[in-house]
Amino acid sequence: MQASPLAKKLANQRKLDWLFVNGTRFFAFLVLISLTGIMISLFIGSLPAMKAFGFGFLTSSDWDPVNGSYGALAPVYGTVVTSVIALLLAVPISFGIAIFLTELCPVWLRKPIGIAVELLAGVPSIIYGMWGLFIFAPWFSENVQPTLIKLFDGIPVLQSIFGGMPMGIGMFTAGIILAVMIIPSIASVMRDVFEVVPTLLKESAYGLGATTWEVVRKVVLPYTKVGVVGGIILGLGRALGETMAVTFVIGNIYNISSKLFNPGVSITSSLANEFAEAVDTLHLSSLLYLGLLLFLITFIVLCISKLLLLRVERNQGR
């Protein structure tokens, strides 16, 4: 008995549905497989360094390719410090940009400024690095660093943070360049989530006599907390993994110092500077070990952010 046209159509739809479901499942698992493959490759490549240095690799600041002595403490320290500086500078500025675009900016000006912010996110990192090295660093060393050094001279804690020689390049400069790079990403995400706040909620608050700041603090932020945290974590992820811009301005010296004006090194700048020249097995393995550490640091940050988001959602349910 020949199948009816309706039965054939249903059979074809079931086949297409099966292809769609399994295709999407394949792509989802492909991401996990790729992630696992990267981690396994880094782990295998790091084994010689793990066997040679053990956990001492994590606590040592030595980096001497001539004598075969390597330690990850200085690159990890530089990575964390520059990323924290970038976040401390970028988050308030990004928040201000997003609030201005959604609450205060004239309607005719919102689109041009929004496009300009998004275009900044598309500038290649090497351009930021060149601008930081040839333009920002000389200006910073002549006009800002001497003033800060004199201002905080004699103050116990601040002197140890903002002391040093005004050379322009260093960890603080790298943090500023990173902040400039991640501001567009964070600001764009914040602007998008602020725009989804229902107009009725904001107008009701204004109708009750609330000021703009009160509307932002008591209506907009509580409604968009998850999105705001997500945007900040997105910026942190870019700051942790940025390579070329940091390599240009951080100084690339394996140094651990509380003085932010001193040169330093990050994991990414270390990999960029030495990976192509690493011919010794132990040297190459140590660099791969640094890559594995950066992978783990990023993974830990993402896990913490996920837990934070879950906590925010749970509090909203209450």
Brief summary:
The protein has 318 residues and is an all-alpha fold.
Strand content: under 5%
What Rg do the Cα atoms give? 25 Å
SSE-based structural type: mainly alpha
- The general outline is flat
Strand order of the largest sheet: 1-2
Quaternary structure annotation:
single chain
Proportion of residues in helical segments: over 70%
Average pLDDT metric: 87
Number of helices: 14
Count of extended strands: 2
How far the N terminus sits from the C terminus, by CA atoms, comes to 61 Å
Which residues form runs of ≥5 with pLDDT under 50?
none
Helix/strand order, N-terminal first? HHEEHHHHHHHHHHHH
How would a textbook summarize the main sheet?
Answer: 2 strands, antiparallel
Question: Topology of this structure?
Answer:
Elements lengths: L4 H49 L2 H4 L3 E2 L4 E2 L2 H32 L2 H15 L3 H19 L1 H7 L4 H6 L9 H25 L3 H9 L4 H12 L1 H17 L2 H6 L17 H8 L6 H37 L1
Antiparallel strand pairs: 1-2
Structure commentary:
This protein is mostly helical and 318 residues long. Helices cover 77% and strands 1% of the residues. It is built from 14 helices and two strands, in the order ααββαααααααααααα. A two-stranded antiparallel sheet has the order 1-2. α4 (107-121) packs across α8 (171-195) and α9 runs antiparallel to α10. The relative contact order is 0.14. The model has no long low-confidence stretch (mean pLDDT 87).
